[in-house]
Design a protein that fits this description.
Layout: H1 3-24, H2 26-33, H3 42-65, H4 78-81, H5 96-119, H6 124-147, H7 171-179
Helix pairs in contact: 1-2, 1-3, 1-6, 5-6
């Protein structure tokens, strides 16, 4: 499995995993995260269920816009046989890179929020959520650097393709010039 597909499926799976308890049992989630045991209000129930529906929709949109779920009914098309690429001209997933970027920013914001709540002493669920979101940020960042057509890091050498000779020597460019 390609890392790009892995990121899309893992990101969507994590959002669905967060959404299901919020949709089915908001009382338990509010009780776990609340410092005191009390009955939840109608507003808390509405907001938790709205958040879960939003997470489910975001998960589905992530899979659709990145091309992980094909939008066509025929699997015999040549563009689907080669898989989805992050090339902006690919007709199967024209929004792959923007969706990757937005989900990366989303998971980064969630990781920061959960980590800040954990450091306030609010419990282990925040720590676990921060770790999973940080993992998704790391994998998404890797995909943004290496798996996109606009990636600026060379896969073979690991060097930045935009390197110049100032103020340090660019040995990679000198090697290429010596070959020519």
């Amino acid at each position: 499995m390609d890392v790009y597909y892995f990121y899309n499926y893992l990101s969507s799976g994590w959002m669905v995993l967060q959404a299901i308890p919020l949709l089915t049992t908001p009382t338990i989630i509010i009780t776990l995260l609340s410092p005191s045991v009390r009955e939840i209000t109608q507003l808390e129930s509405y907001l938790s269920r709205s958040l879960s529906l939003t997470l489910l929709l975001l998960s589905l949109l992530t899979l659709l816009l990145t091309g992980s779920l094909p939008l066509t009914t025929s699997l015999a098309q040549p563009s689907l046989a080669s898989g989805v690429s992050t090339d902006p001209t690919d007709p199967t997933a024209p929004y792959a890179v923007p969706t990757l970027t937005l989900t990366l920013v989303y998971h980064g914001a969630v990781a920061f929020y959960c980590w800040s709540q954990y450091t306030k002493g609010l419990g282990m669920p925040y720590f676990l959520a921060a770790c999973v979101s940080a993992l998704l940020v790391a994998v998404g960042g890797w995909c943004l650097l290496f798996a996109t057509g606009d990636g600026r890091i060379n896969r073979k050498t690991g060097a930045d393709k935009r390197m110049s000779g100032y103020p340090l020597k660019n040995k990679e460019a000198e090697k290429r010039k010596a070959k020519i």
